[in-house]
Design a protein that fits this description.
α13 packs across α14 and α14 crosses α15. The strands form three sheets. Strands 6-5-11-10-9 form a five-stranded antiparallel beta sheet, sandwiched between helices. A four-stranded antiparallel beta sheet has the order 2-1-4-3. The protein has a two-stranded antiparallel ribbon with strand order 7-8. The protein has 373 residues and is α+β, with helices and mostly antiparallel strands. 43% of the residues lie in helices and 21% in strands. The chain has three domains: 168 residues, Beta-Lactamase (2-Layer Sandwich); 114 residues, PAS domain (Beta-Lactamase); 65 residues, Orthogonal Bundle (Arc Repressor Mutant, subunit A), CATH 1.10.10.
């Protein structure tokens, strides 16, 4: 499995955990493996009271976690730096204090070193006036201290974990009622749709109703949600039919309206035991998110360039494909001959493994969350 496929799979699992908090342990274990770490945690730290609340963990030693809560949270020299950290920015030990100084602390000698750990990379996902919530990974001696690749992998994962935690807080997991998650969906900037296994529309948020009212991308016919594009509708039907076997696996579609504006649709199949959107034959089998394809929001072009080893010129052409469309439009936008654009396009296909321009659009869209407002 390629690095991009692993990332896509991990992102799907992260959002699946918003429906069932019991999945977080597996998600964190998956994230630790992807980033290159021995353990991962979701925690809240209070720098004033020196208290910690552990939400979820994977791979950590329970004995040492208890020691940290009882005694060593008060000795942790990283807590103040974490509290003042920027949202979603990965911070390793060396980013907060000289590493040699860290090695001389009682915290390192009595809590870190006995576990064979050498580094902790944390990123703030929420902050209040008294505490800071974080996603963090522990680097073992076998992993070594954090490097740029560690930070890059964290930057790919953290925004999705942050959004998933925000969604989780909006959902009452003690109730099986659909209303809770529907309310959360209604706050999304992207069009959000819940569909049962037969393709019937269970719920659409406000942005989703706007898309339906236009009738250019999606339509409801006899209660069934239909994709205006025939090929896209075929993919939706196939995804719904196999939802039980592919829960959590994100399927992306490239769509366009009558004026040529490009959209990206993400279909997320939901396992029956994890779906809380209704009951019986009206239970949702999949969530569909639709948004305008653009280069705004959480997209990190430099990560795409590093992942596929693109030259600056190739990256410009790739991004222009999302904004402008075909070869002629990109040629006019960049002021470059069409033959040159075609040459870059051929290299993009070769480097990314994409077979069509629509695949390139879906690839770019994969680096921006469909849930971003």
């Amino acid at each position: 499995m390629s690095g991009n496929q692993k990332l896509t799979q991990l992102i799907g699992h992260i959002y699946d955990a918003t429906l069932d908090p019991a999945l977080w342990r597996g998600v964190l274990g998956h994230a630790a493996q992807f980033i290159g770490a021995s353990a991962a945690v979701l925690i809240s730290k209070d720098p004033t009271a020196r208290r910690v609340c552990l939400f979820h963990e994977a791979g950590a030693d329970p004995h040492y976690l208890q020691l940290y809560s009882n005694r060593y949270a008060a000795l942790d020299p990283l807590t103040i730096g974490h509290y003042f950290g920027e949202l979603e920015r990965p911070l390793a030990v060396a980013d907060l204090l000289p590493y040699e100084e860290f090695l001389r602390t009682q915290f390192y000698k009595e809590w870190v070193r006995p576990q064979g750990l050498v580094d902790f990379v944390g990123a703030v996902i929420d902050k209040t006036g008294t505490d800071v919530a974080m996603f963090g990974i522990f680097r073992h001696e076998k992993n070594g201290v954090a490097d740029e690749n560690t930070r890059q992998c964290m930057r790919m994962v953290v925004p999705h974990i942050r959004r998933a935690m925000m969604i989780s807080r909006a959902v009452d997991f003690n109730q099986a009622e659909a209303l809770t998650l529907k309310d959360a969906f209604d706050g999304f900037g992207a069009g959000a749709f819940l569909i049962d296994v037969c393709g019937r529309l269970v719920h659409a948020n406000a942005a989703g109703h706007d898309i339906l009212n236009s009738g250019e991308l999606l339509r409801v016919i006899d209660g069934r949600l239909m994709v205006a594009d025939a090929e896209g509708d075929k993919t939706l039907r196939a995804t719904l039919a196999s939802s039980a076997d592919n829960a959590g696996s994100d399927v992306a579609l490239a769509l366009s309206d009558g004026e040529g504006a490009r959209y990206v649709a993400h279909i997320l199949p939901l396992a029956a035991e994890h779906s809380r959107f209704g009951r019986g034959p009206r239970a949702a089998a999949a969530a569909l998110f639709v948004r305008r394809a653009s280069l705004e929001g959480t997209l990190r072009p430099e990560i795409i360039a590093r992942t596929y080893r693109l030259t600056p010129a190739e990256l410009r052409v790739l991004l222009a494909m999302v904004e402008e469309g075909g070869v002629r439009e990109v040629s006019e936008s960049l002021g470059v001959a069409e033959t040159t654009i075609k040459t870059h396009l051929s290299r993009l296909f070769e480097k990314t493994g994409a077979g069509r321009q629509a695949d390139l659009i879906k690839l770019v869209a994969g680096y921006a969350s469909p849930l971003a407002g």
